[in-house]
Amino acid sequence: MKSIQRLFEVDPWKIKTKALDIENRRLQESLTSIGNGYMGMRGNFEEHYSGDHHLGTYLAGVWYPDKTRVGWWKNGYPEYFGKVINAVNFIAMDVFINDQPVDLAVLKPEDFYLELDMEKGLLTRQFTVTVAGATVAFRFERFLSIVKKELAMIQMNATVLAGEATIRVVSKLDNTIQNEDSNYDEMFWQARNQVATPEVSYVTAQTIPNPFEIEQFVVTTGMKHNLSASDTSHTPLTAEQTFDFHLTTNQKMSLEKQVIVLTSRDIPEAEQVATLNDLFATFGNDYQTLKAEHLLAWKKRWELADVLIEGDDAAQQGIRFNLFQLFATYYGEDERLNIGPKGFTGEKYGGATYWDTEAYAVPLYLALAEPNVTKNLLKYRHNQLPQAQHNAQQQGLKGALYPMVTFTGIECHNEWEITFEEIHRNGAIAYAIYNYTNYTGDETYLQKEGLEVLAEIARFWADRVHFSKRHQKYMLHGVTGPNEYENNVNNNWYTNTIAVWVLRYTLENYRKFKNEATIQISESEQAQWQAIIENMYFPVDQELGVFVQHDTFLDKELMPVSELDPIHLPINQNWSWDHILRSCFIKQADVLQGIYFFNEQFTLEEKRANFEFYEPMTVHESSLSPSVHAILAAELGMEDKALEMYERTARLDLDNYNNDTEDGLHITSMTGSWLAIVQGFAQMKTANQQLSFAPFLPKAWQTYAFHINYRGRLIFVKVDSEAVTFDLLKGAPLEMLVYQEHVTLTDQIRLPLR
């Protein structure tokens, strides 16, 4: 079991600490990230900090196509890979006391306190320093408005506790920031304009040209304060306003900074400055009013989304942290956007979209947001269908291949084993259409746009398989399954399974909605697809009673992770890639991913045999891994294992399980803690459009409770040591299954826990 050293105290609603951990500053910054779906940032300090840290601010949909630099170019490689780029540092407020800089990497602060209030969406920090004969207590507070998406607010207060102090604050807009992952210290921004006045200052910057016909983004960032500046200055890509305060003992100062950020995704460059001034006037500058509406909006979100856990504050903190960061990243307002794996918290993984969204995020948003939020995720993929067709053509294949990593729909991942081989992601796009339709009961999307996407994915699979004359079976060679610790394998069971499922699901619904459909599937295509469905090869071992991960998996030296010396873990940070690829160790659910997706197709005995065979060899070094295992373990009655996996997914970042959170949070996998409780502990399922539950209560917990939206209804579910209670808060009565027995929910039902 991992030895846990927590940077922050356990608190149900807060991420807080009294320690400035200089050695783990990057990790602290990741864990105190904030966002509002339009923009976000790591938990950087406002004032200058000279110690090791990662300064990061990111804007939704603003990126750069960087050239794929490889000396072994292959046909089909993407021309570029996508980079989320570090944008303007608009929180900067360098502070001086009697001309001496306040730098917490150099000074030793007293009374340090850092807090992310997840309930309110507020980041606060306070500390006391003695500099140049004066002792001064500082407090900073900031938020990114979830009501006014372009708005950020920073409040700085200082009190002189002893001595006299001239406090100078140089408030800045700094667009000279570079990416940490850039090639050859590249700068991705070029100056367009900058203006600094005592009242309002702004910087306009544009992304540098690229040779790939990708639009250059223009961003204008403006700032104003509650006071008029005593001095101003600007250079290319920066603007500064200076404020001086002359204070004696017990005197206080307060400075409020209002920032508005506009991008050319929404406002053309020629209109940005005028729009900026209009928004400053419209929003007003009353900090408390703007803060109050922000707090109210978060309150409304939590009324639906909160999961209440009694008896385990660490578990409670974990799921609230994950939900907070998810909703700070994406809340469905913009169908042009998707959920980046790092959100606004770091640059790793580059792209804005992985298959994580369809596989892991869709179920949560279906239950915790209005249906149009999930529909926007589906529209995102439908809008990019031509690009997916381009991706398939690049591989010499028919149909559509949705990308592993993308901003626009064009594949921009530069690792061959991903771009060429991890094609199972195509199936997840189709599965999301099924998931939406099955959960909401709304077939209108499936009938037209959905079938357009499904048909092209099916055409890809039909072209990608080959027929083995020796075995008289269709096969898929040269693939990488969800277990990325194996590359270029033949007949990955999960990939073969989801390929056949897509073909079958597409055929069934084309025949059902042929008159409404906007596409045509020829009789010859239908016959070919049916032949593949009936004759696909699936590796199975009858003696072990398991679906074999791929053709040669059982030829490996098989051993459980428990036999490894813990010094080898995580193996991705201690072993060579060659060693990993030859080992039996599994990064994440692979066979079990298929059993999770298509749960109703397998017997309990099949689920148990495969779980007991594969889970002991799984190192869970993908953030996506624990939740699937928690859900299946719960169904199999392995309550301790289910809770272990919940704790791992709920506190993956808070406890830095994989020793990589300093690079940024694992946003898309944060859905896993909700999935583990709702689909795991409560066993909520929607197979065949039938809602069902079979809850259990973890031994260490006193109760857990959550809301779900389901087909126009709002249902509150509470599980305690004696019973499970269902309250129908809104909508028509509902027939459902509880412990495999039919019940009708009209108002409230309370049933004994089994």
TrEMBL record:
GO terms for biological process: trehalose catabolic process. Keywords: Glycosyltransferase, Transferase. Substrate binds at W355, D356, K587, Q588. Residues 320-674 form the Glycoside hydrolase family 65 central catalytic domain. Pfam families: Glyco_hydro_65C (PF03633), Glyco_hydro_65m (PF03632), Glyco_hydro_65N (PF03636). Gene3D superfamilies: 1.50.10.10, Glycoside hydrolase, family 65, N-terminal domain, Maltose phosphorylase, domain 3. PANTHER family: GLYCOSYL HYDROLASE-RELATED (PTHR11051), MALTOSE PHOSPHORYLASE (PTHR11051:SF14). NCBIfam families: PRK13807.1. This is Maltose phosphorylase.
